[in-house]
Design brief:
5 helices; alpha/beta; Rossmann fold; 7-stranded mixed sheet
Amino acid sequence: MRIIAGFLGGRNFDAPKGHRTHPMSEKARGGLFSALGDIKGLTILDAFAGSGAISMEAISRGASLAVAIDIDKSAIDTVKKNIKNLNIDNKIKTVRAAASGWSNNNQDYKFDIIVCDPPYGTPEFNTLDKLTRHLKADGVFVLSWPGKEESPKLPGLKIVKTKEYGDAKLIFYKR
């Protein structure tokens, strides 16, 4: 896997071993950041981080801080290794926790952009709802979701855009 653009563009990174994560395709990740536009100085919550690709791409493109959360130990270990190898460990905070539990214990944290790329079949709607409370008033909440499934409605947010990439789609929400 590789970072697409920014000061780390072209640099390679590892994905966690095994089948517990499904990294967002490079095409979808490129489309995500193209749709977001200029993210210089913004903060990112990368929920269900997997390899940390979203966090690393965001930092490469100028985001000031990313928080990468995943419950899987091998995923967080991989993110830590990747950000150390790329010398950006001061820009990405890693958290090994369930997204729902982290949200309950960190209710005051707010982000400009929240990206959720959960394993298919999860998370519970309640987890997504909890994560929306971390979105700043003018922020963007992006959900990677199976393409054939109906886009979930999230309280207090409206869908402003949907982009399809193979068997997945990205759903963009705003307040």
